[in-house]
Recover the amino acids of this structure.
């Protein structure tokens, strides 16, 4: 198949990944190429995959968090223009099917005549998207399918979309084994450093449980880092930086426990699965999809979203058998995920209307 993958344009699809969506996009593009498909990735400049790259947003473009309202509108307009131009190229290039991994509302209205799989990586909190799909005059295209990365997130989207399947994220499980031995009394954490990831709660909970904590991730919200994280840094609380997957393997394996502390409706939690595959039990907050990911034999879900409750979950999770933890991660096989995506894409490609095929033949 000739497949277009439309990514968001906020961050390059390259290591070290900004977050789970970027990692997912890279793994999906590489896997589809490996399986013999002709894949083009529309993404920010600086992206690195084995797919053919098409970049419209320069690598040095960054949102200015403290920008004036007018500048924010201009920035959003620039990204929307890049997505719109990508869509025009996709329309004229004879793709069999499109994977929509973007955060834009434009594919819902501008690609109605193209077979498209939208993967919902966020809760239904994208105002531009929800405004479109909740409009009484909007009708879903029969050529579009929607899936999300967890049952919890899919259920949230079903209030707005007619049918949302579930394809849970998968990872290369064998890549997360490490010769590094767990360090007694050490908790680890990794994610984007933003308020909704709750790093301050993870730090407080680790210290309440009597553990040191090392954490990694991009500082995506500098005000939050300066106000809530930096004052907590000391010899027991250490920032390891924004790590590659190879370095994350060592970090995860070194922990006696991994802490997952989202304060929002976490749609999945890729680092949770990576920690499980490393053999590190997980203590998590009871938000979003975390109860789906963390089985009782592999970790503990806190009773409330508070540091004391999370500390108690840490004390219990740290006693879990690491062999059982690894076994729990096998539910998230990368090949199973790709098999399912490939199956959906093949079904969608078969839905191409005859008039589109005729148009393409006449152009040729």
């Amino acid at each position: 198949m000739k497949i277009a993958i439309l990514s968001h344009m906020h961050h390059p699809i390259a290591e070290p990944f900004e977050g789970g969506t970027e990692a997912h996009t890279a793994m999906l593009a590489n896997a589809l190429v490996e399986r013999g498909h002709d894949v083009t990735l529309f993404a920010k400049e600086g992206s690195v995959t084995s797919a053919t790259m098409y970049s419209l947003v320069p690598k040095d473009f960054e949102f200015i968090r403290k920008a004036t309202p007018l500048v924010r509108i201009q920035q959003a307009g620039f990204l929307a223009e890049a997505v719109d131009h990508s869509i025009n190229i996709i329309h004229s290039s004879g793709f069999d099917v499109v994977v929509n991994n973007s955060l834009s509302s434009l594919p819902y209205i501008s690609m109605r005549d193209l077979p498209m799989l939208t993967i919902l990586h966020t809760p239904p909190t994208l105002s531009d998207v929800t405004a479109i799909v909740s409009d009484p005059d909007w009708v879903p295209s029969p050529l579009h399918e929607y899936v999300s990365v967890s049952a919890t997130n899919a259920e949230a989207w079903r209030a707005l979309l007619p049918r949302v399947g579930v394809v849970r994220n998968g990872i290369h499980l064998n890549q997360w084994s490490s010769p590094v031995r767990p360090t007694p009394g050490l908790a680890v954490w990794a994610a984007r450093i933003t308020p909704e990831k709750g790093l301050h709660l993870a730090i407080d909970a680790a210290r309440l449980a009597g553990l040191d904590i090392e954490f990694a991730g991009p500082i995506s919200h500098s005000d939050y880092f300066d106000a809530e994280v930096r004052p907590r840094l000391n010899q027991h609380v250490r920032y390891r930086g924004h790590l590659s997957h190879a370095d994350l393997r060592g970090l995860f394996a070194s922990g006696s426990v991994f802490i997952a502390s989202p304060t929002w409706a976490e749609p999945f939690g890729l680092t949770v699965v990576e920690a499980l595959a490393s053999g590190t039990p997980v203590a998590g907050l009871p938000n979003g999809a975390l109860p789906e990911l963390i089985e009782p034999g592999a970790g503990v879900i806190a009773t409330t979203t508070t540091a004391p409750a999370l500390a108690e979950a840490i004390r219990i999770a740290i006693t879990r058998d690491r062999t059982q933890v690894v076994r729990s991660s096998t539910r998230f096989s990368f090949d199973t995920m790709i098999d399912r995506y490939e199956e959906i894409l093949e079904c969608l490609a078969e839905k191409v209307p005859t008039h589109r095929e005729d148009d393409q033949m006449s152009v040729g």
Summary: The chain is about 40% helix and 15% strand. The radius of gyration is 21 Å. The first strand starts at residue 2 and ends at 7.
